[in-house]
Amino acid sequence: MAKPRTPPAVAGRAHADIQTETYLEELADAPPAATAGTQTDALLDRPPSPLFVPAKSGVDASTQIQHGELFNFDLEVEPILEVLVGKTLEQGLMEVLEEEELAALRAHQDEFEQIRAAELAEVQRLEAEAARREQERQRRATQERERLAREQSVKAKVAAAAYARKYLNTVRTAVFSKLLVEGAFTDPLAQEVEEQFLPGILQNVSQRLALRAAAAAAADGVVSAALARQRLALGQHKQALADEAARVAALEAERLAMLAAEEESKRAAQEAARAAEEAALAAEQEESEEEEDD
């Protein structure tokens, strides 16, 4: 539960902190402090705490004021009451004026709101009328465009029909002429010739051409076989010539090898003979030297 607090001071007054205890003490920012210690026997009972009697500090001062010495209450309070009454009346008048002014402002605001609502309604009516006119204009413009489009379509259809009639008149004549040229309207004699006489002739010509093609194919086969046999004989002759050339080359290589061997044996014999002559000359020279020494 919160501790009750002192009510706020009246206007023009202020609360002050005072001591209301029985014993007065000097107030200081930092009270004096001291550390003390004692050692007692744990088995001894703790004596009862003595009553706290704070030490007296400061100097006592007193004064005696007799009744009527400071001021006359009735005389001194009259101007204060006049000021209070005047301020109260002035404040009440100001509050009344403010209430009247607020009422006037509310009335003026209500009137302004009514005027603004009327103007807003008028603006909305004008906007709706303008929107209706714009919709009507767009609808009329759409109808006019549709009418012009229908007229253009009708004109195009009429022009197309006239051009088609004119074109068909020229095309009909051209088609009949072309069909007549192509033989659509055929002559019975010409049709009989084309359907009965010409197919037999074409068949006979086809048979003769087939026989001629078969004869030409047979002649081509005979010529191809002869050419194949000639190419085979020519290949065998070339192979025989190649084998003969290889045999001649082998014989020539063998002959050259024999000649080389003979030349090598002759060169070895000559070198041996030369070595023997040199050995003989050396022996003779040694003998001659020994004889000279003797």
Low-confidence stretches: none
Distance between the termini: 165 Å
The counted number of beta strands is 0
How many domain regions?
2
Give me the secondary-structure category: mainly alpha
Strand content: under 5%
Count every helix, treating DSSP H or I runs of 4 or more residues as helices: 2
Which series of helices and strands comes N to C?
HH
What integer value in Å does the Rg equal? 79 Å
Helix content: over 70%
How much is the average pLDDT? 79
Please describe the biggest sheet, giving its number of strands, its sense, and whether it closes into a barrel. Answer: none
The geometry reads as: flat
Relevant terms:
294 residues, mainly alpha, flat, 2 domains, 0% strand
Molecular structure report:
The chain is flat and about 180 Å long. The relative contact order is 0.02. It contains two helices and no strands. It has helices at 73-182, 188-293. The protein has two domains: 73-185; 187-284. With 294 residues, the chain is mainly alpha-helical. The protein is 73% helix and 0% strand.
Q: Would you summarize the structure shown here?
A:
With 294 residues, the chain is mainly alpha-helical. It has two helices and no strands.
Please describe the topology of this protein:
Blueprint: H1 73-182, H2 188-293
